[in-house]
Amino acid sequence: MTREEREKLIHQYEGGCQAVVDELHGFPEKDLVAHPIPGKWSAREIVQHLADSESQSAFRLRKLLAEEYPIMQAYDQDVFAVLLRYNVRDMAPALELFRATRASTAQLLRLMSEDDWKRTGWHPEHGVYTAALWLQIYATHAHNHALQIRRLREALAR
Hints:
- The chain is mainly alpha-helical and 158 residues long.
- It has a single domain, classed as dinb family like domain (Four Helix Bundle (Hemerythrin (Met), subunit A), Up-down Bundle).
- Helix content is 65%, strand content 5%.
- It has a two-stranded antiparallel sheet with strand order 1-2.
- Helix 1 (3-14) runs parallel beside helix 7 and helix 2 packs parallel to helix 7.
- The longest helix has 27 residues, at 131-157.
- The N and C termini lie far apart (43 Å).
């Protein structure tokens, strides 16, 4: 990955939280827990997921930078959604955790050296895990969920 490609992805990563906030703006409170699309999460569940996912991803990047060939731990996001009661918890703290974690990690991304970008580890679902792969995954992650929130709003309006 070139420096220019990384810069573009970091910029995209930095805008992910705002994309989610923008899609949540004006979302009716009563509809935050609705499931208008069968098999898909509610808006509240998406926000809770983003907080947990961002926490996990931030730790993974830090392990890559601080440990020699770290082994990443996978988790079942659907089990988290049910057992951690995503659809009944207030999403304000989750949204703040997502925002703060992403902001802190963005600072770290901006300080990484060329050698940092070459570090590797192992992930049970991805195999060899690099900072570049991490960035490719998480640069789009929040934006994809922002689109899901938009689709939920559209489905509720029908």
